[in-house]
């Protein structure tokens, strides 16, 4: 079987839905598109504005940037407080750690060299490992007593915040934007019903928020129990560890993660592996 070979592939992407649908089609799949989220800027951005003030006063010892979109949003909030040059100058005086390549790219645009870099797969666990290594000589970057701000990316990461507190840091989350269900949940409701009834062959999760909203809406539709049958017969592809963790919280073990946490790799490798994975899953289910 070459590629998806006509398999029905559910994708929950919002911003890059058109691009993802073209990729699925290019690899021989039938895309079923059901956006699962929309980005909602925090109305007043009180926390972000307050943080910018602290940054300008030198009251932040370490800033952790979790997403590229969030980093840009934080800069936009800063524009309402001070000139962009002043914000960038304050960042240059502060230790800054981007979690992955997207916030790193934004820092590069600002002419800022990060204090530390985080290796793939760029989860909060790798971030903590890098910080723990930096606490040793010769860097001796001790978190104890340090004022640490964490730019959040829609949903908070309690594990990361708790781990930083355990290491003695004074932690301040900085929520810059949040996620909500789409204004029109019709396509997502229809996709959940199709999934629960065995009408989907492959599902692609490209962020943990999609997982949260998928199960949230299924519960409201009283289809949570039916989902288990859907997952038993469907190939579940996760973009990376953070998304896989959220799936695990809902009792779902993803069938695979791509070699790199990027959409192109996800679709290509899902197409390559779909036949074998579905044969195994459906065979096991039939014999159970």
Short structural summary:
By secondary structure, the protein is an alpha/beta fold. The chain has helices at 17-26, 46-56, 68-79, 84-92, 101-109, 124-134, 158-166, 186-196, 208-220, 224-233, 241-249, 263-287, and strands spanning 8-11, 30-33, 38-41, 62-65, 95-98, 147-152, 170-175, 177-180, 202-205, 235-238. The strands form 3 sheets. Strands 2-1-9-10 form a 4-stranded parallel beta sheet, sandwiched between helices. Strands 5-4-6-7 form a 4-stranded parallel beta sheet, sandwiched between helices.
Largest sheet: 4 strands, parallel
Summed over residues and divided by their number, the pLDDT gives a mean of: 93
How many distinct beta strands? Answer: 10
Tally of domains: 2
One letter per element, helices H and strands E, the order comes to: EHEEHEHHEHHEHEEHEHHEHH
CATH architectural type of the largest domain: 3-Layer(aba) Sandwich
Shape: elongated
Q: In terms of topology, how is this protein built?
A:
Elements: E1 8-11, H1 17-26, E2 30-33, E3 38-41, H2 46-56, E4 62-65, H3 68-79, H4 84-92, E5 95-98, H5 101-109, H6 124-134, E6 147-152, H7 158-166, E7 170-175, E8 177-180, H8 186-196, E9 202-205, H9 208-220, H10 224-233, E10 235-238, H11 241-249, H12 263-287
Helix pairs in contact: 3-5, 9-11
């Amino acid at each position: 079987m070459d590629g998806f070979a006509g398999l029905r592939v559910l994708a929950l992407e919002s911003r890059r839905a058109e691009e993802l649908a073209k990729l699925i089609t290019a690899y021989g799949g039938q895309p079923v598109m059901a956006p699962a989220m929309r980005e909602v800027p925090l109305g007043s951005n009180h926390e972000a504005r307050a943080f910018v003030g602290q940054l300008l006063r030198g009251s932040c010892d370490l800033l952790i940037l979790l997403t590229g979109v969030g980093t840009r949003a934080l800069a936009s909030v800063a524009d309402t407080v001070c000139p962009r040059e002043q914000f960038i100058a304050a960042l240059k005086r502060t230790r800054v750690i981007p979690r992955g390549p997207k916030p790193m790219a934004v820092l590069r645009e600002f002419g800022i060299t990060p204090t530390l870099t985080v290796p793939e797969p760029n989860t909060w666990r790798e971030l903590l490992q890098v910080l723990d290594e930096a606490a040793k000589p010769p860097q001796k970057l001790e978190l104890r007593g340090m004022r640490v701000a964490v730019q959040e990316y829609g949903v908070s990461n309690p594990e990361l915040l708790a781990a930083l507190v355990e290491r003695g840091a004074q932690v301040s989350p900085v929520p810059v934007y949040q996620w909500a269900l789409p204004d029109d949940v019709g396509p997502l409701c229809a996709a959940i019903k199709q999934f629960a009834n065995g009408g989907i062959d492959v599902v692609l999760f490209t962020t943990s928020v999609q997982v949260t909203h998928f199960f949230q809406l299924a519960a409201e539709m009283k289809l949570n129990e039916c989902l288990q049958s859907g997952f038993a017969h469907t190939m579940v592809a996760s973009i990376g560890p953070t998304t896989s963790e959220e799936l695990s919280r809902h009792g779902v073990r993803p069938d695979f993660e791509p070699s790199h946490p990027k959409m192109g790799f996800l679709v290509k490798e899902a197409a390559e592996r779909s036949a074998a994975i579905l044969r195994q899953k459906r065979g096991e289910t039939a014999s159970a």
